[in-house]
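Deliverable D5.2: sample structural annotation.
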Amino acid sequence: MAELEKEIIILLQKIRPYLQRDGGDLRFVSIENDIVYVELLGACEGCASSHITLKEAVEAIIVEEFPNIKRVEKI
């Protein structure tokens, strides 16, 4: 596993408790072409607000920490 992947997984571990409070979760899938792919789990799967959570929370935190990442997408 590449160092960047490890660092992103560590950062996601810090974000996950906030999602889990509302019954949701996410899982790191991969990084391809500077795009992070995650799988939304639990209540996040069908939530109408999941796109906002993904972009305005998860993506914002990852891009702030890792400026070379272009965006975060769900699979």
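Annotation notes: The first helix runs from residue 3 to 20. The mean pLDDT is 94.
The annotation will be released with the project's public dataset once the embargo ends.
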